[in-house]
Design goal:
The protein is mainly alpha-helical. It contains 13 helices and no strands.
């Protein structure tokens, strides 16, 4: 492992991205409404490409990252990349609502609150949905289908920016100097910290009013990133194609937002307090299926490697 190169990579990425996220958070507060949200989200989208750009300037092996789509022998990994995030997200929602059943509602009331919080015309948006002949349950099921057949392929175009930096460069570099498990742990922590300023200053992922803020949120997100990092790395290692972890990344970013259709809008303050637990997929309760999947996948890979080396 080239320690100097790794340290330089992380330091430059953090320096640029943390500045972008803090500026985005300031603009979000200053502008408010849809303009503020657009500015903040824009800073996050730009941030996603910084790991790839920095890796390029540090002369990472771009040619060896596997840019040509490889389908032969990889169909199961293609299906897993698309389906596993949705399966884990659904199981996470179920676990959360088992613990907090009174927060569940599919009347669209929480979605309306979300619209209103960013200055959108909630009544107009809901009337358009109603005019289409869909109730909230139908809209939710359709959204699930879209998160399987379309959204991952769209979102992977932004996810590729992070995947080139993390899975294409950082994780393989870490594994040159430490065990795979240690690389998974350290890589996940580094990936999580990439988002910390957006979380602390901009309320990214959990908001700002949850129990134990901001420490519980940072801890929950770190757990999620370690688990997701394991799955991303295994998918990349098995396919040797950078587009597969990008597809997996895109699927996660798509399905994790659907919780807004499942909550009771009359309990916004309580939901805000409990949000670090779920139903957002990286809450301490709703992340459990992702952690379980990562442990299973990791154990199988380590066992396979042990057999091959013996």
């Amino acid at each position: 492992m080239d320690k100097k190169k790794v340290i330089k990579f992380v330091a430059i990425v953090y320096g640029i991205v943390w500045a972008l996220q803090i500026i985005g958070a300031i603009l979000q507060d200053k502008l408010g409404g849809t303009k503020g949200l657009f500015a903040f989200r824009g800073s996050l989208v730009i941030s996603m490409f910084i790991p790839m750009i920095v890796a390029f300037f540090l002369k990472a092996d771009f040619k060896g990252m596997g840019w040509k789509p490889k389908f032969k022998g990889n169909i199961k990994w293609l299906l897993l990349s698309i389906l596993l995030p949705t399966v884990c997200a659904i199981l996470g929602w179920i676990l959360f609502f088992i613990v907090f059943p009174d927060l569940y509602s599919m009347d669209g009331s929480y979605l309306i609150k979300v619209y209103e919080s960013v200055g959108m015309d909630a009544e107009a948006a809901m009337s358009q949905i109603n005019e289409s002949g869909m109730d909230m349950k139908t809209m939710f099921l359709l959204s699930i289908v879209m998160c399987i057949v379309e959204v991952p392929f769209i979102n992977m175009l932004t996810g590729i920016g992070e995947e080139v930096g993390w899975r294409g460069f950082l994780y393989p570099e870490l594994m040159k100097g430490m065990s795979r498990v240690k690389a998974w742990l350290l890589g996940g922590i580094i990936w999580a910290a990439f988002h910390f300023p957006a979380m602390i200053f901009g309320g990214y992922e959990y908001g700002k009013n949850y129990i134990g803020a901001p420490v519980f949120g940072l801890a929950a997100f770190t757990i999620a990133c370690i688990a997701l990092g394991i799955m991303h790395e295994i998918i990349y290692d098995k396919t040797k194609c950078i587009w597969y972890p990008a597809l997996f990344h895109g699927a996660i970013n798509g399905v994790t937002t659907l919780y807004v259709m499942l909550l009771d809008g009359s309990q916004v303050e309580r939901i805000d307090k409990l949000f670090v637990f779920g139903p957002f997929s990286f809450g301490l309760i709703s992340v459990i299926p992702f952690v379980a999947a990562a442990i299973i996948m990791g154990a199988l890979v380590l066992k396979e490697n042990e057999k091959m080396s013996s």
